[in-house]
Amino acid sequence: MSLLVLCEFRVRTDGETEFLRVARALAAAAATEPGTLRYQWFVTQRPGHYSIVEEYVDAAAAETHNNHVDSLLRELFAVSELVTVSFFGELNRYLREWASGREGVAVHVPL
Length: 111
Known about the structure:
Helix content is 38%, strand content 34%.
């Protein structure tokens, strides 16, 4: 079963240009990853807020993605704040530990 991840980011007032540059670089990097099924950014109705839909073949592929783009993620977090994250699917140990006790994170496991 695949893992679906939905995230929302709030961009700092002066960081939008940099955020968009890094978001595009992340999408380009994800396009080269065999375990990434979908990686699509969206503009929300709220100014300065962006959402992303990520889908991976499994949790290991999501972990591989995060490791692959670690430096880009640091750049993204320098100009934005992660508001919410929702996981839909089975998490591996790495993702369970990352999500544990973190505000704004919801984990939805299959029935």
